[in-house]
Each structure stands twice: as C-alpha cells, then as structure tokens.
C-alpha cells in the first residue's frame, strides 16, 4: 500500500474545497516576537485561496496584512476578498480542531489586514482569498507581526505576610518606645 504524505492530502483537500479556485499551501515556519514574518504569492489568473501555515510563540497580540504587488500595469494584479486567521492545534489542516479566529473581508480590495489579541503558542494558518485578474495572474506580499506578551503581574502577598509585617513593625515600635523610657 502506498503512503500519501500529509501535505499531498492537504493540497488535495484545498483543491476540492476551492473547486475551480487555484490554491497553494506554504509553511512559513516559526514567527518571532519583534521580527515580521513575510510571505507572498504568485497566483495564476482566476480565483485563488492560498494557505500559509506557521507557529506563534506565546504573545501579546499579532497582526496580519496582505497587499497587492501590481507589477507591469495590467500584467499582474490581485484583488482580495478575504484574509482569515485559523487556529490549528494539532497541525493537521482542515480537521475538527481547526477554529476560525478572525476574518477580514473587502471584496475588490487592494489590501487586507487584521489583528488578533494575545494568544497561546501553537500552530496557526492564514487563508488569503481573492482573484488574480492581471493578464499573467497576480502577485501579492504580506507580513505577520507578533508583539511580546505582557510581563506577569508581580505576586500578591498573602494576608499572613501582611500580618507578619504588622507584627514586626509593632515589635520595632515597642522596642523604640521602651528605649526612650529607659
């Protein structure tokens, strides 16, 4: 029996889901806090749904953007319809644990952006959808930016700690008072 790789199955699933739309899956690797993770696509003329997989570290928020790269007027042009962020805990595309987190839509737009708040480390993917309407198709580029997680709040002392502090201050006050009277 022939083994089929997960990437071949994922591409087949995308092609089946997008019917006549062109689709690609690209693994971007790990996003790093403070360093934009760039990506891009070259779409054949017609509709497309490209998927970009990546991992995020624990973070304070993340931003996603995609922009048309109109090269040679009329030859390459991309019109976007959706930009979607999806959580993918097990790293397997299109199964029951995938959860749509946010979508930005702008039918006919030259660019799209979305932001997501603090998130746990893990697997995610972006779906970029639109139409490449240049004679040669469309070119686009995008970026993922990740901000640092907020520092942990300092620990709150227990009530017993405050009681010990007050008892210690009381003892010091008693000693000072006692020395003044001697």
CATH top-level class? Mainly Beta
Oligomer: single chain
Q: Helicity level, as a percent range?
A: 10-25%
- In total, the number of domains comes to 1
Strand content: over 45%
Q: Roughly how many Å apart are the termini?
A: 98 Å
- Strand count: 9
Architecture in CATH? Answer: Sandwich
Secondary structure tally, helices: 2
Question: What would your notes on this structure say?
Answer:
There is one protein chain. The protein has 182 residues and is of the alpha+beta class. The protein has a single domain, classed as Sandwich (Jelly Rolls), CATH 2.60.120. It is built from 2 helices and 9 strands; from the N terminus they run H-E-E-E-E-E-E-E-E-E-H. A 5-stranded mixed sheet has the order 1-3-8-5-6, covered by helices on one side. Strands 2-9-4-7 form a 4-stranded antiparallel sheet, with no helix packed on it. The radius of gyration is 27 Å and the shape is rod-shaped. The N and C termini lie far apart (98 Å).
What topology emerges from the helices and strands here?
Elements: H1 6-17, E1 25-30, E2 37-43, E3 46-56, E4 59-68, E5 78-87, E6 99-109, E7 111-119, E8 122-132, E9 138-147, H2 159-181
